[in-house]
């Protein structure tokens, strides 16, 4: 129950920031209270995208929070824990799996000491092995948290699918 409250609070804060305008929320909170500056969040996300596009499972794993509370929502399914997420990524990497974020719309918002939310529209190109890849647009949301060694990690991946344009 505590996990649901924690993730629900994160999503509520992100939704409130989106509803009131990302730029205002970013100006007020980025870097405050130990949150990563937008540049740090951007650098982490760019490493995440590069590792995903290279299908580099070890590099992706190193960027994810090593906790059973790590959360990835994919295709309407909740995947809990870094190990379970990595199993799923390894399967997806057998086919076409490519992320193309629109970094001109990237935003990062500090949620408090040691936590931040990032948002960026992403075009995914996804296809099972031997099948034609299909493009799909998503609004990518990730929660970042600082580990005990002060390293920022991805604590949740929450892509929201957009209808075809």
Structure write-up:
- This protein is α+β, with helices and mostly antiparallel strands and 165 residues long.
- The protein has one domain (2-161): Nuclear Transport Factor 2, Chain: A.
- It is 37% helix and 34% strand.
- It has five helices and seven strands; from the N terminus they run ααααββαβββββ.
- It has helices spanning 2-20, 22-29, 38-53, 57-63, 82-92; strands at 71-74, 77-80, 96-101, 107-112, 115-127, 134-146, 152-161.
- Strands 1, 2, 3, 4, 5, 6 and 7 form a seven-stranded mixed beta sheet that branches.
- α1 crosses α2 (22-29) and α3 (38-53) runs antiparallel to α4.
- The longest helix has 19 residues, at 2-20.
- The chain is globular and about 45 Å long.
Quick summary of this structure?
The chain is built from 5 helices and 7 strands. With 165 residues, the protein is of the alpha+beta class.
């Amino acid at each position: 129950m505590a996990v649901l409250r924690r993730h629900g609070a994160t999503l509520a804060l992100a939704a409130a920031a989106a509803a009131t305008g990302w730029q205002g929320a970013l100006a007020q909170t980025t870097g405050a209270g130990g949150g990563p500056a937008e540049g740090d969040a951007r650098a982490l996300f760019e490493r995440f995208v590069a590792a995903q596009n290279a299908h580099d499972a070890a590099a992706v794993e190193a960027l994810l929070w090593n906790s059973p509370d790590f959360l990835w929502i994919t295709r309407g399914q909740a995947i809990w824990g870094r190990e379970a997420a990595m199993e799923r990524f390894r399967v997806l990497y057998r086919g076409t799996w490519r992320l193309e974020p629109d970094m001109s719309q990237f935003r990062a918002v500090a949620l408090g000491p040691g936590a931040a939310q990032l948002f960026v529209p992403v075009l995914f190109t996804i296809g099972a092995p031997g099948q034609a890849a299909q493009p799909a647009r998503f609004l990518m949301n990730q929660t970042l948290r600082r580990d005990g060694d002060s390293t920022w990690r991805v604590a949740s991946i929450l892509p929201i699918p957009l209808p075809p344009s």
